[in-house]
Amino acid sequence: MVEYFRDLKVAGLFLLAAGLYGQEQPVPYSHKTHLALGLECNSCHRNTDPGEFMGFPSESFCMGCHQTVKADSPHIQKLAAAAREKKPLPWVRVYGIPTYVYFSHRVHTQAGATCETCHGAVRERDVITKEVVHNMRSCMACHAATKARAGCTTCHEER
Fold first, then answer.
1. Domain that holds residue 135
2. pLDDT of the residue at 17
3. SS3 content of the chain, % helix, strand, coil (to 5)
4. Does residue 101 sit within a domain?
5. Quick one: 59 exposed, middle or buried, by C-beta within 10 A (0-12, 13-18, 19+)?
């Protein structure tokens, strides 16, 4: 029985570490480095119609700079191969919301929410981890603080 609890603790520590250190991405990417160079969130994360999702940049977009910047890096070579083959890298989403919740990035950014509001200090991160809780309590608290609509159908009606 003692071994069972020891194993359970070890498994819990691995899960905690995965959450703290982020998901492994197909190539390392530092938001801190790229934003310090003058890129903005919407330079790479486009908000196409109808505005619900922020997309990932195309590999060819990244190669606009990386044809010459760090071109000899194995990670950039992997990116270049994906761009040549027009095959998107399998980026792992760090944040997600349940399918029964309607959420529009466009509505929130137009209302004044910043990326940091929901995703933490992204500009300071080399690796993105889930550091902001997204649940009904946190959303309702934010809606109350910003005096946004908070009725059930604001987020739970069919669209």
1. 22-56+91-156
2. 42
3. 50, 0, 50
4. yes
5. buried
